[in-house]
Design brief:
By secondary structure, the chain is α/β, with parallel strands linked by helices. It has one domain (2-288): Rossmann fold. The chain is built from ten helices and ten strands. The chain has an eight-stranded mixed beta sheet with strand order 1-2-4-3-5-6-9-10. The protein has a two-stranded antiparallel ribbon with strand order 7-8. Helix 4 links the parallel strand 5 (119-125) and strand 6 (144-148). Helix 3 crosses helix 4.
Length: 290
């Protein structure tokens, strides 16, 4: 796998009146210049793009390495306002629409580098899945969308709840995710404590705007209903949806919606002992819908 870190200038897409950048890493198979398939991967709240290629763990935990080994390129980004991407001030100027536009522009800049057609799969985890839904509805340039660990049903959140997290939100600014109360939700019981603490040490702050939206019931119901490409919904045995079987029904315009339930896994599927099973099923779905 060859990886290229970059800062993508998305100023023209955001209308924030200041230079705005998305931090990204493009992972390619060693012998590939123009990929037939690109996975555009967006992390969840409290994370950054290293969720897809954690440097503190061995290669068996790398989503990016697994998929490049299977012939697909992977573009990971830090969401606007998170990780190494720009953090506009005041944060209250951010919105879901602005963030989705910034992400769409970052994706366009990468795909414009290649002459041939590239089949793009949007993959979002948790809050990143909320943003993939918003982006796919407003900027319909992805060929399929995988919604991983996001609930359109009223969410369940491990040892905490929506009301408690809403009460802890600041009016504006960048806030830390309360990770210890999320452990029951994030990690299956086979994940070593040493891994959990190393993962938590890599955390990113999250824009209050995004935290507020992610905790608002129905925030992307209308957007989900407009997505007209194949959709894969993934929930783990311990995850955010109290009724996973109801999740596909929110994607009413999609010609093909599948639901996968990952066994022996919690919300952070990439860290579960069954992660390779999850990646293999995702890969098969991409190939079937291409």
């Amino acid at each position: 796998m060859k990886s290229n870190d970059m800062m993508l200038d998305v100023t023209s897409a955001t209308d924030l009146g200041e230079q705005t950048f998305i931090a990204a890493t493009l992972h390619l198979p060693d012998d590939m210049e123009t990929p037939p398939h690109l996975i555009f991967a967006i992390h969840g709240g409290g994370y950054h793009r290293a969720y897809w290629h954690p440097t503190f763990a061995d290669n068996s935990y790398s989503f990016a390495r697994w998929f490049t080994d299977h012939g697909k390129a992977v573009l990971t980004i830090d969401m606007l306002g998170m990780g190494q991407s720009s953090r506009p001030e005041p944060e209250s100027r951010l919105s879901q629409a602005i963030i989705a536009a910034a992400h769409a522009e970052a994706l366009r800049q990468i795909t414009a580098r290649w002459r041939g057609p590239v089949s793009v799969t949007g993959v979002g985890h948790s809050m990143g899945a909320m943003m993939v839904i918003a982006q796919a509805a407003a900027h319909p340039e992805m060929d399929r969308v995988a919604v991983i660990g996001w609930a359109n049903e009223p969410m369940v959140l491990g040892d905490t709840d929506v009301a408690t997290l809403q009460a802890g939100l600041i009016p504006s600014g960048y806030l830390a995710t309360p990770r210890v109360p999320m452990r029951k939700l994030f990690y299956w019981d086979d994940v070593p404590l040493s891994f959990i603490t190393a993962d938590e040490a890599q955390g990113s702050t999250t824009p209050a705007t995004m935290g507020r939206d992610a905790l608002t019931p129905g925030i992307v119901h209308e957007a989900a209903a407009r997505i007209a490409v194949p959709v894969l919904v993934v929930q783990s045995m311990i995850d955010t949806s109290p009724a996973p079987d109801k999740e596909p029904g929110y994607f009413r315009a999609s010609p093909d919606v599948e639901l996968h339930i990952l066994e022996k896994a919690a919300h952070c599927q990439n860290f579960a002992g069954t992660r390779a099973q999850h990646w293999s099923r995702l890969n098969d779905w991409i190939d079937r819908t291409s």
